[in-house]
Specification:
heterodimer; A: 401 residues; alpha+beta; 3-stranded antiparallel β-sheet; 17 helices; B: alpha/beta; 5-stranded mixed β-sheet; elongated
Chain lengths: 401, 201
């Protein structure tokens, strides 16, 4: 049977083709990888994607701007709030709301974005270590992740697909007990990261499997559009939170960790360090959390407060109109690029003046990062493929959308 | 509820003041600034289709520009326009910390655009995605085939005239077999005529 791709199921000389996936525990989702092997060496590799295509961009075009928010959660299901934020901030640019977001809302957004980053990195670290044979790290990581998810559940009622962000702010203010829960997490997390590092950073088996494996150079990383921790592990000090700041990130003190070799081990170090920096940001955001509104007061675009609906006729009408027919930003286009746990998420929204977006496009970081995978693994052993896939931290949901 | 006055959207970078665009217009006089409102303030240029490869190479290779990261390559469908497909490229310069948006228009029965795979290898999957979902053919692409949809799929789903694929609900005279609640009154009447006394639950 011939395959549509460049690789065919045909032995050529001393080589054979091995089909990895789409159901394979170490591919982190439904990724299919075709490998041409000579002995145990990978001669050529080709990822085959699309198994999780759900047409999210198409569906967004048929929903009002607010209804599309819940779809953005499902793109990168390990970091839903990052995608919420990319979409919501692009729509805010279209509506001219960007400079009017209340500071309390922005602080809470940053806090949640960083908690999401930690939660996403914890899943990555747990599964990556599990792939390489260290099973206890997995259990530790999921224990702490559960703590973050219970914070999400407290504020939004949902553990994963929170859809907590709204155009112009947040869906609701945080409830009682939020402060204590986050403070408790911030208190214990640094020592927990020490625990993971004690298990892995100097572990000879882990180092054997990761040091010098699946390297990508600075030049290749830029030419292949690689972003996020992989780009930084290759030595490019580039983080959108620092270099093209959005939201209130300039008000926080944090470092951007950078690697030198661009191998699996450096990506591990960069991500673990990023978790520490995120904890720092969460701590600062919690301590400096201002009082005030959590949504812009603008009845054209933003839902009125719940209490006002009960008291004011106008608010009830605004609420009814916004919920039934939505709002129509003036025609225009806007791109919003943010640093998600995996790299640059760019949301490009085009408005044609109606109440539904003309186009919603997500630039998914994993899409570009996965495209560079053959570059990292060709010429290496099959066992390294598993380490490489783990280290680029793909989420097939955002690759296939 | 108190209405706060709207702040004006970030002003579009005036093309003659933007140094990057000035360089670009000097070298490629056929390019012109876009008049569509760029709410993110990103300088936007409409590039003639046959020049897109040269423009990108120029922007990437000029030592004082270095737009070496293609961060977005996508398409917007405007079926009401004569050239319905608007290809959108966003280029980023790590050196200038700046982005520009390039637009190319194409249309007709077989829309084509020159491929950028010779400049950025990463354009490969992005162009395959646009080909798959919009049916725009990239000339010079080494491996142009579907990437997200199955190989035997017919049509290009992100075109505006491609139906969403929801089950059509007929609220008219034909009784939908799968949902009796749509036509409850008529069903009840029929049942009465047939002598069924148990009400519809």
């Amino acid at each position: 049977m011939s395959m549509p791709g460049v690789l065919e199921y045909r032995a050529e000389g001393d080589t054979m083709v091995l089909n990895m996936g789409p159901q394979h525990p170490s591919t982190h989702g439904v990724l299919r990888l075709m490998l041409r092997l000579e002995g145990e060496t990978v001669v050529a590799a080709e990822p085959d994607i699309g198994y999780l295509h759900t047409g999210i961009e198409k569906t967004c075009e048929t929903r009002t701007y607010h209804q599309a928010i819940v779809l953005t959660d499902r793109i990168d299901y390990l970091a839903p709030i990052s995608n919420n934020y990319a979409y919501v901030s692009a729509v805010e640019k279209l509506c001219g709301l960007t400079d009017r977001i209340p500071r309390r809302a922005e602080y809470l957004r940053v806090l949640l974005l960083e908690l999401t980053r930690i939660a996403s990195h914890l899943v990555w670290l747990g599964t990556h270590a599990l792939d390489l044979g260290a099973s206890s790290v997995f259990l530790y990581c999921f224990r702490e992740r559960e703590q973050i998810l219970s914070i999400f559940e407290l504020i939004s009622g949902v553990r994963m697909m929170t859809s907590y962000l709204r155009v112009g702010g947040l869906c609701a203010d945080v409830p009682e007990g939020f402060h204590e829960k986050v403070a408790e997490f911030v208190r214990i997390m640094p020592s927990r990261i020490d625990d993971y590092e004690a298990l892995l950073t100097r572990n000879p088996i882990f180092r054997d499997r990761t040091v010098g494996v699946a390297t990508i150079s600075k030049e290749d990383a830029i030419a292949w559009g690689v972003t996020g921790p992989i780009l930084r592990a290759s030595g490019v000090k580039w983080d959108l939170r620092k270099n093209m700041p959005y939201s209130v990130y300039p008000e926080f003190d944090f470092e951007v960790p950078v690697g030198t070799h661009g191998d699996v081990y450096d990506r591990y170090l960069v991500r673990v360090q990023e978790m520490r920096e995120s904890v720092k940001i969460v701590k600062q955001a919690l301590e400096g959390l201002p009082e005030g509104d959590i949504r812009v007061r603008d009845p054209r675009y933003c839902l009125p407060k719940r209490e006002e609906i009960h008291r004011s006729m106008e608010s009830l009408i605004h609420h009814f109109k916004l919920v039934t027919e939505g709002f129509s930003p003036p025609p225009g286009e806007a791109q919003s690029a943010i640093e998600s746990p995996r790299g640059e998420v760019g949301c490009y929204v085009v408005s044609d003046g109606t109440n539904k977006p003309r186009r919603v496009r997500f630039r998914a970081p994993s899409f570009a990062n996965l495209q560079a995978l053959p570059l990292m693994i060709e010429g290496r052993m099959v066992a390294d493929v598993v380490a490489a896939i783990g280290s680029i931290d793909i989420v097939l949901g955002e690759i296939d959308r | 509820m108190q209405v706060t006055p709207a702040t004006p959207a970030p002003a579009e970078a005036a093309p003659e003041r933007d140094p990057v665009l000035a360089r670009l217009f000097e070298r490629f006089p056929e390019c012109r600034p876009s008049t569509f409102r760029a709410a993110d303030g990103m300088p936007t240029v409409i590039v003639p289709r046959e020049q897109i490869v040269d423009v990108c190479r120029f922007l990437r290779d000029e030592p004082d520009l270095k737009f070496e990261f293609l961060c977005e390559l996508t398409c917007v469908d405007w079926p009401e326009r004569p050239e319905r497909f608007e290809l959108v490229y966003i280029l980023h310069s790590y050196q200038l910390v700046k982005r520009v948006r390039l637009k190319v228009y194409t249309g007709g029965a077989q829309p084509t655009v020159p491929s950028l795979t010779g400049i950025w290898p990463m354009a490969n999957w992005y162009e395959r995605e646009v080909y798959d979902l919009f049916g725009v053919v990239f000339e010079g692409h080494p491996d142009l085939r579907r990437i997200l949809m199955p190989e035997d799929w017919e049509g290009h789903p992100l075109r505006r005239d491609f139906p969403l694929g929801e089950e059509p609900v007929d609220y008219g005279l034909v009784r939908p077999a799968y949902n009796i609640h749509h036509d409850r009154g008529r069903i009840e009447k029929e049942r009465r005529l047939r002598g069924v006394t148990r009400p519809v639950v």
